Amino acid sequence: MTARELDAAGVTDPRLREAYAHCRRLNARHGKTYFLATRLLPAGRRPAVHALYGFARWADDIVDDPATGHTTADRAHALDALQRCLDDGLRGGASTEPVVRAVAHTAAVYGIDHRHFADFMTSMRSDLTVTDYPTYADLRRYMHGSAAVMGLQMLPVLGTVVPQEEAVPHAAALGIAFQLTNFLRDVGEDLDRGRVYLPADLLAAHGVDRALLRWSRDTGLPDPRITAALQAAAALTRGVYREAQPGLAMLDPVSRPCIRTAFVLYGAILDAVRDDGYAVLHRRAVVSRRRRAATALGGLARLAATRVTARPPAVRSGRVPHYAQEETP
């Protein structure tokens, strides 16, 4: 977190500034695609985004980090402790945990509904015991908490030019589209963790089950049935992007380049999966640095073209960020 960003956000307390800086480091380490897009936001809004995503990364690490060697019971205990810490922070605005301190401050400043955090934690807990999803409807229920609420948390930070309720379904869909993209890219890695996030009914429609996925992962051999199922999953995901797209024009103009860039970059992951022959069970598809850079430069050009005075989204409490000072690198 640069001092300029924190100054623009009106964050002056040294402990709170360090808390936001910690969240930024988490986001930079784990979320390269979205971290790049976040650089296109006005400086004063970036700390809030890093707090929201830093918290999500922290919780996800509790559930998924293979290096800890923790049992399921250990992880459940850690999530319970995090829930108590979060609840206390959201109620009182203070915490001994830096990530919670930053996210509680962000929630207070932007009036973010606390239910979104509760729904997120519910989905994190389900990852401890749920290893597959019989239908897409089952998966959507999980993704409400694990992905849709991220879009809903972000809306007050991004701001809208329409009543916020009008943008809500599109913001939720965008979070789901991003997560479905990750699920498709990470099929092999998730399988190694014992999970299959592609709906069982979609797989079965093409003659695929967990055993066939495991065989392909272990042998390194492709199977046309798996390729067909992955193509269907990609088509499903692109449909969710279409649900989300109308929401881009509903955002505050200074926020649109960031979200549009993320929209394009995540869509490019689907293209990379396709161009690599849907070999996601054997290797991770990646978007080239050149394409990432070109997309980011396009975002900067769109941001420059807006040439509008940034106005802050409505806030409920806390110090209003100094948006008159907002700028991008």
Quick synopsis:
Helices cover 67% and strands 0% of the residues. By secondary structure, it is mainly alpha-helical.
Topology:
Elements: H1 3-8, H2 14-30, H3 32-38, H4 46-64, H5 72-92, H6 98-110, H7 114-126, H8 136-158, H9 164-185, H10 187-192, H11 200-204, H12 210-219, H13 224-244, H14 256-275, H15 289-306
What do you see in this structure?
There is one protein chain. By secondary structure, this protein is mainly alpha-helical. 67% of the residues lie in helices and 0% in strands. α2 packs across α3 (32-38).
Report the biggest beta sheet as strand number plus sense, adding barrel if it closes: none
Class from secondary-structure proportions: mainly alpha
Task: Tell me the fraction of residues in β-strands, as a range.
Answer: under 5%
Low-confidence stretches: 307-329
First-to-last CA distance: 13 Å
Instruction: Name the shape in a single word.
Output: globular
**What is the tally of helical segments?**
15
